[in-house]
Each structure stands twice: as C-alpha cells, then as structure tokens.
Amino acid sequence: MSGEMIAIIAAAIALASVLVPGMRGMRRDMQQMELRLSEITERMSAQETRLTERMATLETKLTERMTRLETTLTERVARLEGLFEGSMRSRKPRKTRN
Question: Quick one: CA torsion of 27, 33, 39, 40, rounded to 10 degrees?
C-alpha cells in the first residue's frame, strides 16, 4: 500500500470517529426535540379546549344578561309611558288664546 492510500484511509477513519458520535448525538437531540414539540402541541391543544369552553360559557352568560337587560329596559319604558300618559290625562287642558 502506498503512503497516500494509508493517509486517505487514516483520514477516513479519523473523520468517521468524529462524525459517527456526532450523528448519534444529533439523532438523540432530534428525538428530544420531537418529544418536546409533541408535549407543547398537547398543551396547546388542551389550552385551546379550555379556551373554547370558557368562551362558550361567557357567550351563554352574556346572552342571559342581555336578555335580562332587554326585559328590564322594556318594563321601564312601559312604566314611563304609563306615567307619561297618566300625567297627560290629569293635566287640565290649556286655554288657547284666540
């Protein structure tokens, strides 16, 4: 074997001894990152579910309150109209100047 071939083989062995462990570490890091990403995705999904439930609850409460407010407002307007009509009947008609 020539000296050049021995140098090439030695360089390949040296390169492989550095790359192989590095690739294993990279694979391990990628697996950990995939696991973290999966955990984050699950948490986000759970948060989205809770948020959707809270929004539905708030929407229901808001609808109930708006209905109560509308009822109260209608009752008050009717009462005011009744008071106004009652006061108009009890007033003496004005004399007009002719």
Answer: -160
